Amino acid sequence: MFPAPFIVVLDANVLFPFTLRDTLLRAAAADLYQLRWSAQILDEMERNLVSTGTMTAPKAKRLRAIMTREFPDAEVKGYEPLISGMKNHEKDRHVVAAAVKAGAQVVTTSNLRDFAILPEGMEAQSPDHFLTNLFDLQPALFVDLLREQARDLVNPPMALDELLDRLARVAPELVAAVQDRLAE
Q1: What total of structural domains would you count in the chain?
Q2: Less Cβ around it within 10 Å: N or C end of the chain?
Q3: Within the chain, how many helices (H) and strands (E) appear?
Q4: What is the mean pLDDT of each run of 10 residues along the chain (184 residues)?
Q5: Which one, of 169, 149, 168, lies nearest residue 159 by Cα?
Q6: pTM of the complete model beyond 0.85
Q7: Closest Cα to residue 40, out of 12, 66, 64, 7?
Q8: Within a domain: residue 64?
């Protein structure tokens, strides 16, 4: 399979929730889109995982190392000079600058209001909207991806229905579409 032609930058807030992060990364590994992030985005993810008590600092550092190892082409570099020219919310300008440098068409974020003003040809999508679009492109592949994700969760084990329940917290439209597909 050839990688999808479109490039997507993931904001730190969509890399924070475990189930959502796992689904997004699996979709990228399946070449449903070309994943991009910056060191600054991963710094924010790592910092937030630790500050909320979700992970210890060593565990968050290991997660980041695994992510960068598995997606060696994802890191965008050299975007810093573009930050000051971005028009979105100041604290998230680095994300849009990385997206511009990467040639991304989409920024996936749970905080759409901070991405209201974007360069032409780029849009911000919620993780639900983004994942639903991916599902619509290849429904059978996406369902297989979710089945595999559920099978891989062993501590504790998780059935597909349980995985979908967790994913529904952040991607209810996606889960509804998947459930419709499963009911066919």
Answers
A1: 2
A2: C
A3: 8, 4
A4: 79 96 97 96 97 96 97 97 96 98 97 96 97 95 96 89 96 97 91
A5: 149
A6: yes
A7: 12
A8: yes
Same domain, 137 and 92: no
Query: Are 176 and 96 part of one and the same domain?
Result: no
Same domain, 116 and 162: no
Kindly give the interhelix angle for 18-29 and 139-152, rounded to the nearest 10 degrees: 130
* Burial of 140 per CB tally in 10 Å (0-12, 13-18, 19+): exposed
Cis preceding-peptide flag for 156 (omega within 30 of 0): yes
Examine residue 105 and state whether it is found in any structural domain, yes or no: yes
* 57-94: pLDDT as tens digits: 999 999 999 999 999 999 999 999 999 999 999 999 99
CATH number at 66 reads: 3.40.50.1010
- Is-contact 108 114, C-beta < 8 A? no
* Sign of the Cα pseudo-torsion (181, 156, 72, 21, in order): positive
Cβ neighbors of 33 (< 8 A, separation 6 or more) are 4, 6, 7, 8, 27, 106, 134
Of 87, 64, 89, 91, nearest in space to 75 by CA? 64
Three-class secondary structure assignment of 2-37: CCCCCEEEECHHHCCCHHHHHHHHHHHHCCCCEEEE
Q: Which domain holds residue 77?
A: 7-126
